[in-house]
Amino acid sequence: MSRKNVIAANWKMNMTPSETASFLDSFLKTFPEPTAVEIVLAPPFVSLPKAAELMAGQSAVGLSAQNMSHEASGAFTGEINAAMLKEVGCQYVILGHSERRSLYGENDVVINKKVHATLAAGLVPILCIGESLEERDGGQLEFVLSQQLEGSLAGIDAAQMPGIIIAYEPVWAIGTGRTATPDQAQETQCYVRSVLERLFGGEVAAAVRIQYGGSVKPGNAAELISQPDIDGFLVGGASLDPASFADIVKAGA
Ligand code: PEP
Question: Residue 176: its pLDDT value, please?
Answer without folding.
Answer: 86
